[in-house]
Amino acid sequence: MKKEAKPWAGRFRLPTSKATEAFTSSVHYDIRLYKQDIIQSIAYARALTKVHVLNAAESKKIIQALEAIMRELEHGRLKLDPELEDVHMNIEAFLIQKVGEMGKKLHAGRSRNDQVATDLRMYLKYEVTEVVFLIKKLQEALLEQAESNIKVIMPGYTHMQRAQPLLLSHHFLAYYEMLRRDKERFLAAGKAADVMTLGSGALAGTAFDIDREGLAKELGFARVSRNSLDAVADRDFAIEFLAACSLLMMHLSRLSEELIIWSTFEFNFIKLSDKYTTGSSIMPQKKNPDVAELARGKTGRVYGDLFALLTVMKGLPLAYNRDIQEDKEALFDAVDTVKAVLGIYPEMLLTMKVNAEEMKAASKKGFLTATDLAYYLVRRGVPFREAHAIVGKIVAYCEESNMQIEYLSLQQLKQFSPEFGYDATRFLSAESSIASRDMTGGTAPVRVKEAIKRARKELLHDQA
Fold first, then answer.
1. For 272-322, how does the pLDDT look when each residue is reduced to its tens digit (9 = 90+)?
2. What SS3 class is residue 3?
3. Catalytic position from the list 28, 280, 401, 409
4. What's the predicted TM-score (pTM) here?
5. Catalytic annotation on 28?
6. Residues 376, 347 share a domain
7. Which of 22, 46, 161, 290 has its CA 20 to 30 A from that of 315?
8. Is residue 337 located within the same domain as residue 374?
9. CB neighbours of residue 67 within 10 Å
């Protein structure tokens, strides 16, 4: 490529130092915006033709050259020059090389400020659809496991202490709900990005009568920016996307933590497939849940991307400042990390084996139906706090006697309260406890089946 003077070189007397060129260059990462930049430039060439900055012949030649540059970049036949700072200046240089001086007309009324903001919004809109699709795949995997394990009983936990029995399916559906909220947040981030900033110029707007609404329609934007100053300085849409990424990763980290714990020898609730685990270089018996651990670890990385951009933006006066160039690495890293985790997670879940007997055995230890016994007394007219105290004494008695609460006889129960009747022991099993949670959002089998059916319909509607 013939070396062109830098587009802003007119008022400078000394060349940029090599150190400055290397320090300010973003070519090595913003290359991924080349498609958006070329598509935008083609639309802008048409807009300039309508206001007679370009004639029809020039416009046609420029558009054909941009399309050729797109193909050459796709096939790796063009090498970007870091001295030209970014992908936008490189594409402009390629264009000038192909069509000559008329290529220099394309930037009329346009700044890299509104150009890069539009590119980034186009990029994020696409990535939102990709992430939402991958979230749906993970939701489907959760539903598959929920349906396959509809009869599996497990202990529910609070404070990592056994609390009450529930269905494993109900547990999986909790993560389905988290992911449902994540999809909503990503879609909201996509809506925030769906604003075209092209035509804002450097900060004050363009002096040419560009049809911004027509440009927005051609580029697939729902609306145009309302304030040129805000348009070029705004990265709220990127921060909203990173916030959605952070919340998603937090949810996946929580799920990872549970899979890691459940797969331990101490719990033995699940077995992860050999395909998604690794071994030890020294201990032959080890089977480590490395995929889940890395998903948990990468959560901090995505948090860092969010805080990096928040910190970049926190003290910037209007309008554009070069600091904002730092938005892309954080954004691209989060996109790649989230998609990588979502890409591997569904198959890891689907190949996971559930140890139903171990889960059920665990649900019979730890006095998980103590609350049900207290509720029995409440139904017999005993105030809840008094019932709570009575059952607390029963639990203490069971601990001292080294026995589980469900094996207590009616005679033993009556030692603690005369309100216990012949039917009291029916409320001491995990099955009866689960069945009693027959309300919207509860863990009763009928409610869980309804929730799975509803979730299936939701996903079907999402895919329509």
1. 999 999 998 999 899 999 999 999 999 999 999 999 999 999 999 999 999
2. coil
3. 280
4. 0.93
5. no
6. no
7. 22
8. no
9. 13
